[in-house]
């Protein structure tokens, strides 16, 4: 447990004592998440959501509600100082307002934006108080999977059984995934995205949780050269970057165009070559 989480555990009693109005909303969010997870166990239809996506959407919703509660506490101030100004600057919501989608920003804010030597995030802090807030083990397990995830670069190898087949260009295996945005993809595309593992044994498909960012230029060869230039372990690099805003800033400056149906967003440029990005101040 990191120092922020330790302080949060100490103060969680005061959070309950203050009887913040949104405690009721947190309970409602957990009840709704439990309902969704119960439905996915039998593979029943979840409105417009694929069951695998629905499981993670439930966990994300609970994370969002709890995050708004705990970030009111002084213990969370170091994380608020990182995330708050970024939200003000990027105004996440997706094109045409911003190239930063809500799915990308919230995943970055909850699971990747970190502080301190222990790289504490909002999610690691929430997991530290899971028992205190009565979080269901199934939901805690899903939040932990999301915390362990990272953005990555995937080559679309086509489709199989209605799912996109994606291969991690950093050396991972190919997986079949459903895209939460509904984007089907084309063979040969490079996706900058967050691919989550199957949420449960009976759900055998991965989930592209964020709206896919498609690299229209450069191509695979240039990206592989970029990967060779990375000195840190690749998992750490694609999750945290050299600084907290490295990846959000890349997306913000590399925006090129978007699918008017909202399924995908197109990028141009490389993260370590600002002159290649359309909206970089260094062009």
3D architecture notes:
It contains ten helices and eight strands. The protein has two domains: 146 residues, no CATH class; 126 residues, no CATH class. It is of the alpha+beta class.
**Uncertain spans:** 40-47
Mean pLDDT, rounded to whole units? 87
* Rounded Rg: 19 Å
Strand content: 15-25%
| Global shape | globular
What helical percentage do the residues reach? 40-55%
What topology emerges from the helices and strands here?
Blueprint: H1 3-17, H2 23-41, H3 51-70, H4 77-90, H5 102-112, H6 122-128, H7 137-148, E1 151-160, E2 163-168, E3 174-179, E4 190-196, E5 206-208, E6 213-217, H8 220-229, H9 234-240, H10 246-254, E7 255-258, E8 265-268
Parallel strand pairs: 3-5, 6-8
Antiparallel strand pairs: 1-2, 1-4, 2-3, 4-5, 4-6, 7-8
Helix pairs in contact: 1-6, 2-3, 3-7
């Amino acid at each position: 447990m990191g120092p922020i989480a330790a302080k949060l555990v100490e103060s969680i009693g005061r959070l309950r004592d203050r009887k913040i109005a949104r405690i009721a909303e947190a309970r409602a969010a957990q009840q709704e998440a439990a309902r969704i997870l119960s439905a996915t166990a039998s593979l029943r239809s979840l409105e417009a959501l694929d069951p695998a996506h629905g499981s993670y959407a439930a966990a994300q919703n609970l994370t969002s509600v709890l995050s708004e509660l705990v970030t009111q506490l002084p213990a969370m101030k170091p994380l608020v100082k990182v995330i708050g100004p970024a939200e003000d600057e990027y105004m996440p919501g997706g094109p045409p307002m911003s190239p930063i989608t809500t799915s990308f920003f919230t995943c970055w804010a909850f699971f990747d934006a970190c502080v301190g030597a222990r790289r504490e995030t909002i999610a690691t802090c929430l997991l530290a108080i899971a028992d205190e807030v009565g979080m269901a083990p199934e939901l805690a397990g899903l939040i932990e999977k999301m915390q362990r995830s990272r953005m990555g670069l995937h080559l679309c190898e086509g489709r199989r059984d209605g799912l996109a087949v994606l291969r991690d260009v950093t050396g991972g295996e190919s997986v079949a995934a459903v895209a939460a945005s509904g984007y089907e993809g084309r063979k040969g595309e490079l996706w900058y995205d967050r691919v989550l593992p199957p949420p449960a044994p009976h759900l055998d498909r991965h989930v592209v949780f964020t709206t896919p960012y498609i690299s229209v230029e450069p191509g695979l060869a240039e990206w592989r050269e970029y990967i060779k230039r990375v000195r840190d372990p690749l998992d750490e690099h694609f999750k945290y970057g050299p600084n907290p805003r490295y990846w959000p800033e890349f997306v913000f400056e590399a925006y090129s165009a978007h699918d008017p149906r909202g399924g995908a967003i197109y990028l141009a440029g490389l993260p370590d070559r600002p002159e290649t990005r359309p909206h970089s101040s260094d062009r």
